[in-house]
């Protein structure tokens, strides 16, 4: 069973579990670990699994999902699986082949959600991060409204149940929402979101358009990641979060996850540590008070940990 059946309805009628398992891992983590931890996460109760073509682990994540279906732990329809179309595949004619490649790696017939990874197009080719001779990123010029139409076709073809975006600001979202002949609205916008960057304006905008905000980096970031500024404060050591955690006899991580769920945000918990994976599912076992929520709101300081896009 997924914990307490906690799902929210998307604007296309499908349901997304409010707690997701993030499968991204730094390059030094062996790919085989993705199989183990994803299986463990499903056994612990996670039903929403988030990955992406560019994580280069879809083969392993797919293997884990299929093995948990084979052993009777879950049915395919119990699992909500998200993949993302990477920046080198944003030309309309490359979108479907990119999704088909993900499906082939996963060995699944469909994904539940397919989203544009970021609103930045890079030159198509063999490499995920194309650079010129000076090491500068090679951007491509693509109208994301045309990319969106290609995603709509993937939904119509049954390759994905729902379609959405990631790392979009409200202007970029508006461009798609105001597109003439729009067939399907994005169901979600997946962005970095945590108490130090609570995205309240973007959340309000998304809610007003019946778009779900999905939070990544909800626990801040590990200091070890190469693109994370090591001088930034460590979220999980925040005194306010720690005090609230102590009061509820929970961990600061659980408080940070619970905060998102109570404000209507779907939250991804990313961990390759079995003890923490098990712990994160306990987010449904307690509730924060209005005072707790206000205190956490007060931590917002527009700190971005994942500033690797530009």
UniProtKB/TrEMBL annotation:
<dbReference type="InterPro" id="IPR020471">
    <property type="entry name" value="AKR"/>
</dbReference>
<feature type="active site" description="Proton donor">
    <location>
        <position position="55"/>
    </location>
</feature>
<dbReference type="InterPro" id="IPR018170">
    <property type="entry name" value="Aldo/ket_reductase_CS"/>
</dbReference>
<feature type="binding site">
    <location>
        <position position="117"/>
    </location>
    <ligand>
        <name>substrate</name>
    </ligand>
</feature>
<dbReference type="InterPro" id="IPR023210">
    <property type="entry name" value="NADP_OxRdtase_dom"/>
</dbReference>
<comment type="similarity">
    <text>Belongs to the aldo/keto reductase family.</text>
</comment>
<dbReference type="InterPro" id="IPR044482">
    <property type="entry name" value="AKR1C"/>
</dbReference>
<keyword id="KW-0560">Oxidoreductase</keyword>
<keyword id="KW-0521">NADP</keyword>
<dbReference type="GO" id="GO:0016491">
    <property type="term" value="F:oxidoreductase activity"/>
</dbReference>
<feature type="site" description="Lowers pKa of active site Tyr">
    <location>
        <position position="84"/>
    </location>
</feature>
<protein>
    <recommendedName>
        <fullName>NADP-dependent oxidoreductase domain-containing protein</fullName>
    </recommendedName>
</protein>
<dbReference type="Pfam" id="PF00248">
    <property type="entry name" value="Aldo_ket_red"/>
</dbReference>
<dbReference type="InterPro" id="IPR036812">
    <property type="entry name" value="NAD(P)_OxRdtase_dom_sf"/>
</dbReference>
<feature type="domain" description="NADP-dependent oxidoreductase">
    <location>
        <begin position="19"/>
        <end position="300"/>
    </location>
</feature>
């Amino acid at each position: 069973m997924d914990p307490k059946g906690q799902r929210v309805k998307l604007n296309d009628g499908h349901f997304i579990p409010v707690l997701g398992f993030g499968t991204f891992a730094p390059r030094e983590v062996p790919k085989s670990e993705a199989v183990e931890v994803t299986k463990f996460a499903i056994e612990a109760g996670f039903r929403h699994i988030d990955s992406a073509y560019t994580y280069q682990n879809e083969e392993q994540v797919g293997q884990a999902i299929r093995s948990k279906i084979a052993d009777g732990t879950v049915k395919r329809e119990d699992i909500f699986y998200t993949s993302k179309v990477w920046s080198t595949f944003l030309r309309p004619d490359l979108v479907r082949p990119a999704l088909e490649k993900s499906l082939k790696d996963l060995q699944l017939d469909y994904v539940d959600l397919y989203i544009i990874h970021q609103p930045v197009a890079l030159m198509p080719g063999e490499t995920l991060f194309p650079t010129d001779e000076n090491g500068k990123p090679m951007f491509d010029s693509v109208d994301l409204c045309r990319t969106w139409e290609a995603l709509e076709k993937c939904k119509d073809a049954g390759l994905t149940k729902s379609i959405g975006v990631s790392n979009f600001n409200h202007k970029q979202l508006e461009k798609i929402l105001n597109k003439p002949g729009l067939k399907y609205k994005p169901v979600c916008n997946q962005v970095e979101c945590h108490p130090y960057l609570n995205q309240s304006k973007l959340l309000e905008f998304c809610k007003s358009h019946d778009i779900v905000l999905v939070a990544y980096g909800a626990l801040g970031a590990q200091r070890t990641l190469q693109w994370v500024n090591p001088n930034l404060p460590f979220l999980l050591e925040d005194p306010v979060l720690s005090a609230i955690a102590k009061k509820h006899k929970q961990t600061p991580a659980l408080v940070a996850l619970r905060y998102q769920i109570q404000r209507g945000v779907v939250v991804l918990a990313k961990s390759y540590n079995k003890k923490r994976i098990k712990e994160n599912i306990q987010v449904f076992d307690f509730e924060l008070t209005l005072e707790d929520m206000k205190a956490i709101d007060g931590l917002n300081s527009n700190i971005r940990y994942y500033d690797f896009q530009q």
